[in-house]
Amino acid sequence: MSTPIEQLLPRFTTFQNETLMVAPLSGGLTNTNYRVEADGVPYVVRIPGAQTELLAVDRANEYYNARAASAAGVAPRIVHYLDDVNVMVLEFIRGETPSIARLNEPGLATRMARACKQLHAGPRFLRDFNMFRLTEYYLQVTREHEVKIPDGYPEYRPRVNEIESAFVRKPLPTVPCHNDLLAENYVGDGTKLWLIDFEYSGNNDPTFELGNTAQEQQFDDAHQRELCAGYFGDAYFGGTPWDKLARMKLNMIMSDVGWTLWAAIQHKISTIEYDFWGWAIDRWGRATQKMDAPQFREWLDAV
């Protein structure tokens, strides 16, 4: 028993006295994932990465919220959980992990909006999520651990403060949100879209969820409007509600502002082979482009 997965499998009752087939699953940026078949029945075993506390991952919160999301009907069932090592065994969803290109196909933005609405209508999550506070925490981590961040990052803090000031003037009720809906965290089974990996889940403004997934999928304006209309409905003059769309656009910025620092920290601490620094630079470039755009003031005014 030389690998973590081999050491863990005997602890799960589902895998005892069964014929097992184990294979790694690709795509994880924080954790190590395996597909384990027990007498032909597939499961996912998820092993947390090292030092994820620096990334503000709260495993107790994740476990609670993943169970709530499963109860809402949008996430796989948790079969086993080892709380001493925070390892989960989940049911295996047979389907595809869609690419960004796939999620940009006609009608997919509406389906994504429906999946988000189903999650948001489910049980409340254990704790809240606030990207403004998380960004402050990440900045503290970068200082304490001497993590390199993109040039010019501190100079844009006043604009980030303007976004928060706009949001708090007319806050939306918080709902249970995933908060990290990149393409790899959707699974399509041909009928519905499932959501996986609830490491950053928490009760939050629903337009952060929409803005985050729009940014992760690199949605153009038409797809952003479809996502917003699919969630809120065509409420204003037969079109997408402008104030909600503006909140989405500002939260697209906040998604990149926060996850830029996440990637910079990962660049220093992660053992996963991935260009986290290039990811940080790309995200920061998108964020500054939007904060420098003439429309930035229009979005603030609309909110």
List the helices and strands and how they pair.
Elements: H1 4-8, E1 20-25, E2 32-38, E3 41-47, H2 59-71, E4 78-82, E5 87-91, H3 100-103, H4 108-120, H5 131-144, H6 157-169, E6 175-177, E7 186-188, E8 193-195, E9 202-204, H7 206-216, H8 221-232, H9 242-269, H10 276-291, H11 295-302
Antiparallel strand pairs: 1-2, 2-3, 3-5, 4-5, 6-9, 7-8
Helix pairs in contact: 4-8, 5-9, 7-8, 7-9, 8-9, 9-10, 9-11
Describe this structure in words.
With 303 residues, this protein is α+β, with helices and mostly antiparallel strands. It has 2 domains: 4-91, Phosphorylase Kinase, domain 1 (2-Layer Sandwich); 100-302, Aminoglycoside 3'-phosphotransferase, Chain: A, domain 2 (Alpha-Beta Complex), CATH 3.90.1200.10. It has helices at 4-8, 59-71, 100-103, 108-120, 131-144, 157-169, 206-216, 221-232, 242-269, 276-291, 295-302; strands spanning 20-25, 32-38, 41-47, 78-82, 87-91, 175-177, 186-188, 193-195, 202-204. The strands form 3 sheets. Strands 1-2-3-5-4 form a 5-stranded antiparallel beta sheet, with helices on one face. A two-stranded antiparallel ribbon has the order 6-9. A two-stranded antiparallel sheet has the order 7-8. Helix 5 packs parallel to helix 9 (242-269). It is globular. The chain starts with a helix and ends with a helix. The model has no long low-confidence stretch (mean pLDDT 91).
